[in-house]
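Write out the 3D structure for:
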Amino acid sequence: MARSRHQPGRPRVPADALRRVALVGLLIAIASGGAGCDLFAERPEPNARREPAAVQKQLPLGLALANLCPSAETDPADARMLRRQAEVLLRELERRPDWVVRYVYVYEDGTRNPEDITVRRLAEEQLELLDGGDEEELYLTGRHCEPELRERIRTGLAAT
């Protein structure tokens, strides 16, 4: 099932974009032997330290960073918020990649699945969504979506 992260009252990524992101994710999972599937996802240690609530509020746990892609038509206030959240994610990825945050997966059928994931896994999730958004952006506009941000997240993940 494709999943998206959505908060009521916030703009959504268009449905076709989500389907394409899901398809790209499925293809990546198949190509990687299932490494991209949640069943094989890294699980945090049971006693892992939690990010403080004040920090979690600053992380991209609501809207996906893929909403920064121009084709998502995100309003400027949300785009500014997402850019700030991306900076906090990069900072926490460098400082505390194994600390845990509460992330809620929301599936197309409305099912919500709250899960504790590491900051590293959150960065991987956001990068996957950005990469899927890049595919959509290339398809729609011929331009790449947030190449600098995607590279900074990749670099941060490689350093952990």
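The radius of gyration is 15 Å.
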